[in-house]
Amino acid sequence: MGRTMAIVAMFGAIFTIVDVLSRQTELERAGQDYNPVAIWIYDPTSIVVIVALAPLVMMLANRCRFAETPLPLWLAIHAAGFLLFSTVHILLMVWLRKLVFFLFFDVPYVFTNNLPRDFVYEMRKDVLSYALIVLVFFLLRTYSEQRRELEAARADARESQLITLKCGGRTMRFAADSFSHAEAAGNYVEVHTTGATHFARTTLAGLEELLRDAGLPVARVHRSWLVNRDRIETSAPSGSGDMVLTLAGGATLPCSRRYRNAIEA
Hints:
Strand order of the largest sheet: 5-4-3-7-6
Number of helices: 6
Largest sheet: 5 strands, antiparallel
Number of strands: 10
Structural class: alpha+beta
Shape: elongated
Radius of gyration: 29 Å
Strand content: 15-25%
């Protein structure tokens, strides 16, 4: 939660500075008098309340996870959460402004002379704030979960020489020494092992890291190909410095001249 709050606060600070400076420029262009101190009160009081409410929004986002909650229910829960968030934000923001004006200025703060209109106006702006908190929390949580899974997979590879990969909600495990070669296929990697082919949502670099952790002598032979060096039986030139590798079992794959050192070393 701490990182999410830090990012929300950072965005809030940037928005505050840009918005206040823009408002000052607009007032100066229109030739209107304004209090340069008072104008810096409005946005900061809003941001302080938003950051204070952010942990509650994150708690709701953590309990109501998009992947685990039916979409209609997810939308209904967050719609209710947003209405409560926005209402509390507006009430506390107005209270803070009234307090600051009471303590430091000779005139009282007046929120509006048309409550329904200005309440809806503030709520429209709160949509972005609420969505930003939920989005940042989701992205950071997803990143943290992926990092934990990667560290666990690397530890498993080092300790038991088992490779753990995922594809959607499916988890696959195979012995590292059964690996033959792999090819990048869009957002996936097609992994060939002894007697099986797996599609995993990873990268060649990530797969190579796991295999090296397991002690396997793998080599990148092309920007789209990774091979177990122990499975290479022959290599033959194919022109322009490139080669064709033949593996145990008869599979062939290209080796570009850029990666020849990985095979010849």
